[in-house]
Amino acid sequence: GPKVVSQELSAVLLEEVEAVLRRRPVIWDNLYANDYDCRRVFLGPYMGRAPGLMSRLHGLLLNPNCELQANFIPIHTLGTWFQSELGSCAPPDHAGTQPLCLGSSDSQGAQDGSYSPQEALELALRDWVAEINQQALEPGR
Fold first, then answer.
1. In this predicted model, what pLDDT tens digit does every residue of 36-80 receive, in sequence order?
2. Which residue in 58, 86, 94, 101 is deepest, having the highest Cβ count within 10 Å?
3. Whole-angstrom Cα distance, residue 84 to residue 17?
4. Positions of the region Disordered (predicted)?
5. H helical segments located in 1-141
6. Which domain holds residue 40?
7. pTM for the full predicted model
8. Is the CB of residue 63 less than 8 Å from the CB of residue 30?
9. Which CA distances in Å does 109 have to 28, 46, 101?
């Protein structure tokens, strides 16, 4: 992105990067990284990424928080975002091959295939509470 920790990534920005690289980029997303300031912990949903970005990428990596448990919500909502991205068809790449286009069959995503950070956060919180409750019931905890 335009910064080390970019609040937003747009299709226009990725088109510029693709033109320079002459290929679709892989993004190392620092949205939730806190290794530069461990006093901060980011717990919000994956957001600030334009719809349809996956068709412009070869891959996306998420640089997580340093605190393992604090990554549940960011990673869960990234998964929800990714599922919504699978619901949209990508244009053919430069080699002329058509990327895989899947419909959104996952009931956890938005019904129309679009991503809602608020809905993704609510789903992640529900699943995180269930995970915490499950761990509390395990022997030795």
1. 888 888 889 999 988 888 888 999 998 888 888 889 999 999 999
2. 86
3. 23
4. 97-117
5. 11-21, 72-86, 117-137
6. 11-89+117-137
7. 0.74
8. yes
9. 24, 13, 16
* Position 105 in a domain: no
Residue type, 139: P
Instruction: Collect all residues with Cβ–Cβ distance below 8 Å to 42 and sequence separation of at least 6.
Output: 31, 32, 34, 65, 70, 74
Q: How many domains does the chain have?
A: 1
For the chain, the residue count is: 141
Assigned domain for 106 exists:
no
50 assigned to some structural domain: yes
Q: Is the pLDDT of residue 107 over 50?
A: no
Q: 109-130 pLDDT, tens per residue?
A: 444 568 999 999 999 999 999 9
